[in-house]
Each structure stands twice: as C-alpha cells, then as structure tokens.
Design a protein that fits this description.
Layout: H1 12-23, H2 25-35, E1 37-44, E2 50-57, E3 62-65, E4 76-81, H3 82-90, H4 95-100, E5 105-108, H5 110-113, H6 116-127
Parallel strand pairs: 1-4
Antiparallel strand pairs: 1-2, 2-3, 4-5
C-alpha cells in the first residue's frame, strides 16, 4: 500500500522511509532506539489542503497515514509545507533553520522532534532521494 498522495508530491518520501525501515531489521531497531516516539507530519500543499502521516519509532518502526497508529497518540507533530518537507527529506533544508524561520511548526515534545533529523538523513542515504 503506497503512502503517496499525488496532491502532495513530497509524500513519496514516506514510502521511501517505510522501505528503509522495513528493509533492514537492525536499522529499524536502531531507529526505534534513537527515536523513542511517534512523529506526525502535517503537510500543507500549494492548494491549501492538509494531509497527515506518522512515523512510529516508539514500538513498531512503521509509517502510515494519519496522526498516529490506531489507538495510539503521537508525541510530536511537525507541520510544514509540501515544498519545505521535500527540501527537508532531500537534505536541501535544515529542520532547525525551518523552525527558526517559522516554516516548521512543532506541537508536543520539541526535544523529540530533534531526534527525527538523523533518521531522515539515514533514509535519504539509503533511498538516494
């Protein structure tokens, strides 16, 4: 099942992150150990529509649509534009700079949000985004 939504071009990254997590058991366990949280991403496209995806690095190491897996609650929600998310996952933008410039909004545990960038970097390297 693809996580990509054509109205959100950067959403293809969630499939790549999911593939990265599911292809190597040791990497998935390492990501869970480092992440210890459920990260939600709320992406806004150019038309003003929003869609959410989550990366569960608390228990299972999976990616899905919505704010959290069924019956669970996310620890942190990162909200940004489709363009900025594409730049973030491709390594062309830095999460801290996006946050400081107001382009990335964080709800929940800000410290946990900082644990997401190394995990995105690892997915970039594996997926060659």
């Amino acid at each position: 099942m693809s996580l990509k939504n054509d109205a959100f071009p950067s959403s293809a990254a969630f499939d790549l992150i999911n593939t990265s997590l599911s292809s190597d058991d040791a990497d998935r366990k390492d990501a869970i150990k480092k992440g210890k949280a459920i990260f939600a991403f709320t992406i806004k496209n150019k038309e003003g529509q929003t869609e959410s995806w989550y990366i569960d690095l608390k228990e299972k190491g999976v990616v899905g649509k919505g704010l959290a897996p069924d019956g669970k609650k996310n620890d942190v929600t990162l909200s940004l534009s489709d363009d900025d998310f594409a730049k973030l996952v491709s390594g062309k933008a830095n999460a801290q700079k996006l946050f400081m410039s107001g382009k990335l909004k964080v709800k929940g545990d800000v410290m946990k949000a900082t644990k997401m960038e190394p995990i995105l970097k690892k997915a970039q390297t594996k997926a060659k985004l």
